[in-house]
Amino acid sequence: MGDFELGTDGPSALVVGVDGSESSLRAAAYALGLARRQRARLFAVYVRREPGAFLTFGGTAVQAIVEAQGEVEAQLLEMLDQQAREWGIDARLVVRSGDPLRVLGDVAAEVRASGIIVGASASLGHRIAGSLAIRLVRAARWPVTVVP
């Protein structure tokens, strides 16, 4: 029987979806703890909405939405950097635009993630159309952990 190699049988990279919501911040905290315990790299993915998606709101509103996204991004980066330094984790914030399902899948494929972690959706619309977590599970390419 071979020798057990400490620290080599867990995930090597994890992806967590973050958007600044309370459930995504709980998912990020869970992912940080898991990455620390498993000595895995952590990729926190923030998906920005395309400015074109807000054209019906008018120029001033679009500018406010873009600025709000920038503020959320800065807060997420600050939080992630602080926790990563404190806990000695290799963690990075990845910011992209597009569909969250596609972006999370692309990043997971690029970093060869062992799993994806997301927060549970509290939106009523998601109960009808399907939440990101359900869509990720249906894609069936990675284990998906949904944090309530």
Architecture overview:
The chain has 148 residues and is of the alpha/beta class. The protein has a single domain, classed as 3-Layer(aba) Sandwich (Rossmann fold). 49% of the residues lie in helices and 20% in strands. The protein contains five helices and five strands; from the N terminus they run βαβαβαβααβ. The protein has a five-stranded parallel β-sheet with strand order 3-2-1-4-5, with helices on both faces. Strand 2, helix 2 and strand 3 form a beta-alpha-beta unit. The longest helix has 29 residues. It is globular and about 50 Å long.
Architecture blueprint of SSEs:
Elements: E1 13-17, H1 22-38, E2 41-48, H2 59-87, E3 91-97, H3 100-111, E4 115-119, H4 124-129, H5 132-139, E5 144-147
Parallel strand pairs: 1-2, 1-4, 2-3, 4-5
Shape type? globular
Structural class: alpha/beta
Counted by DSSP, the helix tally is 5
Beta-strand content bin: 15-25%
- Could you give the order of the helices and strands? EHEHEHEHHE
DSSP strand tally: 5
- Mind summarizing the main beta sheet? 5 strands, parallel
- Spatially, the strands of the biggest sheet line up as 3-2-1-4-5
Helix fraction bin: 40-55%
Uncertain regions spanning at least 5 consecutive residues: 125-129
Mean pLDDT: 82
Number of discrete domains: 1
Could you state the CATH homologous superfamily?
HUPs
Distance between the first and last residues' Cα: 41 Å
**Over the alpha carbons, how many angstroms does the gyration radius reach?**
17 Å
Second-tier CATH architecture: 3-Layer(aba) Sandwich
At the first level of CATH, what is the class? Alpha Beta
Determine the CATH topology: Rossmann fold
